Amino acid sequence: MVSQEEFDALKKKVERCQREADRAQGAYEQQMKKLEEDFGCKSIEEAEEKLSEIHAQLKEAELTFESEFNAFNEKWGDLL
Fold first, then answer.
1. CB 35 within 8 A of CB 47
2. What is the residue extent of each domain of the chain?
3. 61 with 67: CB under 8 angstroms?
4. Phi, psi of 42 (to 5 degrees)
5. C-alpha torsion sign, points 39, 44, 50, 56
6. Measured between alpha carbons, how far is 1 from 56 in angstroms, rounded to an integer?
7. DSSP conformation class of 43
8. CA torsion 22→24→26→30, rounded to 10°?
9. Contact in structure between 52 and 41 (CB atoms under 8 Å)
10. Residue 4 and residue 12: Cα distance in Å, rounded?
11. What DSSP string runs through 26-67?
12. pTM recorded for the entire structure
């Protein structure tokens, strides 16, 4: 049989764990709301897809810049 002290300690532990779970749930909901407001994503999966698209656009922009920079250098490099 469980003593009153053991029961009280276990009850406190359960209550602490419940508070932590509630805080974590609140933080999750707040971050999901921010994700939707800032980026229009309703899920983490949507955010990951959007991030992949942004990375692809960035890579394309980097390649375009590098190409244009090289062309500029070829044409005007000797004058710089």
1. yes
2. 1-40, 42-80
3. no
4. -95, -5
5. positive
6. 63
7. S
8. 180
9. no
10. 12
11. HHHHHHHHHHHHHH--SSHHHHHHHHHHHHHHHHHHHHHHHH
12. 0.66
